[in-house]
Design goal:
The complex is a heterodimer of chains A (173) and B (504).
Chain A (H helix, E strand, L loop, with lengths): L1 H28 L2 E11 L18 E4 L18 E6 L4 E2 L5 E2 L4 E6 L11 E4 L28 H8 L2 E7 L2
Parallel strand pairs in A: 1-7, 2-6
Antiparallel strand pairs in A: 1-8, 2-7, 3-6, 3-8, 4-5
Chain B lengths: L1 H30 L15 E5 L11 H15 L3 E9 L17 E8 L5 E7 L2 E7 L19 H11 L14 E6 L5 E9 L2 E7 L6 E17 L7 E3 L4 E7 L7 E6 L4 E6 L7 E5 L8 E9 L2 E8 L2 E6 L4 E5 L4 E7 L5 E7 L2 E10 L8 E6 L3 E2 L7 E2 L6 E4 L7 E4 L3 E5 L7 E5 L2 E6 L6 E5 L3 E5 L7 E5 L6 E7 L2 E14 L1
Antiparallel strand pairs in B: 1-5, 2-3, 2-6, 3-4, 4-5, 6-7, 7-8, 8-9, 9-10, 9-34, 11-12, 12-13, 13-14, 15-16, 16-17, 17-18, 19-20, 20-21, 21-22, 23-24, 25-26, 26-27, 27-28, 29-30, 30-31, 31-32, 33-34
Classes of the chains: A alpha+beta (173), B mainly beta (504).
């Protein structure tokens, strides 16, 4: 009788463990580590870029491929609002007051690269605005000096200097 | 990408156990009350504040319901926390096309900040429960952060107002399926509720005043080009080519002739253009039906069904322009075609997949004979073809571009994030020719010359099979450049201008 009871308890525990695992993974908290992905940086003078969400595009946001333009990239199907984290190497980003941060978590808010020249799982990190939000400014215009109201901001130059990096990060399955 | 796939596969297999271990630890911490707001009193060190499984059957909620739920959570963190933006998301949702049609969504995300310190946090509600909260690890100058006030208008009313103002607003696709809602500032001091969807095949949004319900604007997300450049001397010198719009393909018939064809999104339509003076001038031949959409994944020219034809691969199918009869018609496709090529024998090659399923990528072939069918090949996973004398299939998802300088594929060029490389043994070994990063490389159909792009927009050219290279040109304002090599010595470089919101 004791053996039957032990087996029953063991079975219940096993079922509970399996249910917990299935529930946890099914619920969407599973994650995948991506290695060898390509990351670039961008900046611009406008308020929200191509993001359909309202609110300012800020450091900590990123863009990736659209599934309409680049259907072969699995990450192109990630929805707006997706988070990636433990990003390595962390980019050095200057803020408006001259301080420096090395963010490792990013939120998907934008799309880019309609030519799909980057590879799968490409991320484009937003380095920040480099001009007042009501002023247009082209990154390619090297003669234009763009500052906001703080001592140092040339995020455009910083974004281009980041180049095309091989990175790793954790994100959706 | 094979390394990436191997590692991600390995991690996927281990994920269940990692998830179980993580669940156990998280559960224990949460039960002890130590996890939920751990670190909330500390500085903005990056980290996870809350990570809970979403409800099994989450109930959708309105914008105001989400606002109140988040505000209640913020009150636990202190009296200085403010909501900077609030939007619905497809994360943890499985939306169909009608999702959000009643103004309610399953998942809502907020960016919040401490008005005193500028610390930023991200929150995610699913089914009304706080499932994720994260400290991204940065602060913003408090005077630059714009706190929102609780709106008077709720998302169901905003949706009604938006659809009344713009009846063409339908449910969206891509990264935001169905109707979505975003509450935030349009500019520094102008709050609005955006009702997101699609209009005429474009991502679109209608902005509504959160208090009065006045419709402020209706916008669609347009993509535009940044210009087209041409080189007629093997990539050494470059001039502007007078073709406006986003140039997505430039091709020519390998069989000869002066004509070069371009597929261009003008902002309003996708059209086929022809030049008979090597890009000196262009004439529009045909406008593709709106069902084709704005994207041309690829194009190719060659013999087809007894005629010469230009074939364009779009999200709305394959379209063929019969050059002899000037007829535009749809061509049966082996799926969503993402790359096209015609080899020297007139055989057509296509990389195609089931829509939404990149893991189904496969290479197909079709003869030029009348009514021939696409036949699958054994090659799975290739998404593009090398330029040059032979269309060698490869996977561009690896972040590399490939060109071949001979029909056997013995001498290859490869653009990578690190370097421009050459292989003389069919890709078994590679030698770096120039330090990168390089983002594109193409070879002429005769294999005699090649051009590459060094990020962001500098062109280099080689006239000796990739052995030596010379700096050719720097394209102003270029960050995303796509190269085309339609004919021997003739090259084009298209610049992607980017996406922008336009009134509709």
């Amino acid at each position: 009788m004791a053996a039957v009871l032990r087996n029953a308890i063991a079975a219940i525990v096993l079922v509970a463990v399996i249910a917990a695992v299935v529930s946890f993974t099914r619920a969407g908290h599973s994650a995948t580590r991506y290695y060898g992905a390509t990351a670039t940086g961008y900046a611009f003078g406008s308020w929200g870029g191509a993001s359909p969400w309202l609110g300012e595009l800020t450091q900590g946001h990123f863009a990736n491929h659209s599934s309409s333009w680049c259907p072969t990239d699995p990450a192109a199907y990630w929805p707006f609002g997706t988070w990636i984290w433990d990003f390595s190497p962390a980019p050095m980003m200057f803020q408006g007051d001259g301080s420096v941060i090395w963010p490792t978590s990013f939120m998907l808010r934008d799309i880019g690269d309609p030519f799909c020249t980057r590879g799968n799982y490409w991320v484009d990190l937003y380095f920040g605005r480099y001009k007042n939000p009501w002023d247009a400014c082209d990154c390619g215009n090297s003669t234009e000096i763009c500052y906001i109201s703080y001592a140092y901001v040339n995020n455009c130059q910083d974004a281009l200097a980041w180049g095309v990096r091989s990175v790793s990060y954790t994100g959706p399955p | 990408m094979s390394t990436l796939r191997y590692l991600t596969g390995l991690l996927r297999r281990r994920r269940i156990w990692a998830a179980f271990a993580g669940a156990t630890v998280l559960g224990g911490l949460a039960a002890a009350g130590a996890l939920t707001f751990a670190g909330a009193q500390g500085g903005p060190s990056p980290g996870v504040l809350v990570q809970e499984p979403p409800p099994a059957s989450p109930s959708p909620m309105t914008l105001l319901e989400a606002w109140d739920e988040i505000a209640a959570h913020l009150a636990q963190w202190g009296d200085a926390w403010r909501i900077g933006s609030l939007a619905s998301s497809d994360v943890y949702d499985d939306p169909d096309e009608g999702a959000g049609g009643d103004g309610r969504r399953v998942t809502w995300q907020a960016e919040v900040f401490d008005a005193r310190t500028g610390e930023v946090r991200w929150l995610r509600l699913t089914g009304g429960e706080l499932v994720d909260a994260r400290v991204p690890g940065w602060t913003a100058p408090p005077e630059l952060l714009v706190p929102l006030e609780r709106p008077t208008l709720d998302s169901p009313e905003a949706l009604e107002l938006a659809k009344a103002a713009k009846p063409s607003l339908g449910p969206g696709r891509d990264k935001a399926a169905g109707y979505h809602f975003s509450y935030g500032a349009v500019h520094a001091s102008q709050p609005a509720i955006a009702v997101l969807g699609e209009a005429g095949g474009f991502t679109a949004r209608v902005l509504v005043d959160p208090r009065s319900g006045t419709v402020l604007a209706a916008e669609r997300l347009a993509v535009h080009g940044g210009g087209l450049y041409v080189s007629r001397d093997g990539g050494v010198t470059w001039d502007r080519s007078p073709l406006d719009g986003l140039v997505q393909a430039v091709v020519a018939d390998a069989g000869g002739g002066d004509a070069v064809y371009a597929v261009v999104w003008s902002g309003d339509d996708l059209a086929l253009w022809r030049s008979v003076d090597a890009g000196g001038s262009w004439v529009r031949l045909a406008v593709l039906p709106s069902a084709a959409g704005p994207v041309a994944h690829a194009a190719a020219v060659g013999p087809l069904d007894g005629d010469e034809a230009v074939v364009v691969a779009t999200n709305g199918g394959l379209w063929t322009y019969r050059i002899g009869t000037a007829r535009l018609e749809q061509l049966p496709a082996p799926g969503l075609v993402v790359s096209l090529a015609v080899d020297g024998s007139g055989t057509w090659h296509a990389a195609a997949m089931e829509p939404g399923a990149p893991e189904t990528l496969r290479v197909y072939r079709r003869s030029s004979a009348n009514g021939a069918a696409w036949e699958p090949t054994a090659n799975q996973g290739a998404s593009d073809f090398a330029t040059g004398p032979a269309p060698i299939p490869y996977d561009r998802g690896r972040g590399e571009r490939l060109a071949t300088l001979d029909a056997a594929g013995t001498t290859l060029l490869r653009a990578t994030g690190a370097a421009l490389e050459q292989s003389t043994d069919g890709g078994a070994t590679w030698e770096a020719m120039l330090e990168g990063p390089f983002t594109d490389v193409v070879a002429s159909p005769d294999g005699r010359s090649a051009v590459a792009v060094r990020y962001p927009g500098s062109l280099v050219a080689s006239a000796d099979g990739g052995t030596t290279w010379q700096d050719a040109a720097a394209l102003p304002g270029a960050r995303e450049v796509k190269l085309f090599a339609p004919r021997g010595g003739l090259y084009f470089a298209a610049i992607a201008g980017g996406f922008e919101w336009q009134p509709f």
